Amino acid sequence: MVDPTSDLGEDIDEADAPTCANCGDPIVQSPTHRVVTWVEDGRVQHRHFCSDDCRDAFAE
């Protein structure tokens, strides 16, 4: 897994890239990439989304 704070557009292979939590597409060099972060039980959690539309459509 790639560090979510890294520059994801730099030298990231598609196999190592994060995937969108909604559609499952790998996120490589995407200017619309969004990361949602929250704290749960004292641990930082996060989800990657390829776009605002996928973030808005995501249902837990």
Automatic annotation (TrEMBL):
It comes from Halogeometricum limi. This is Small CPxCG-related zinc finger protein. Pfam families: DUF7576. It comes from the Archaea.
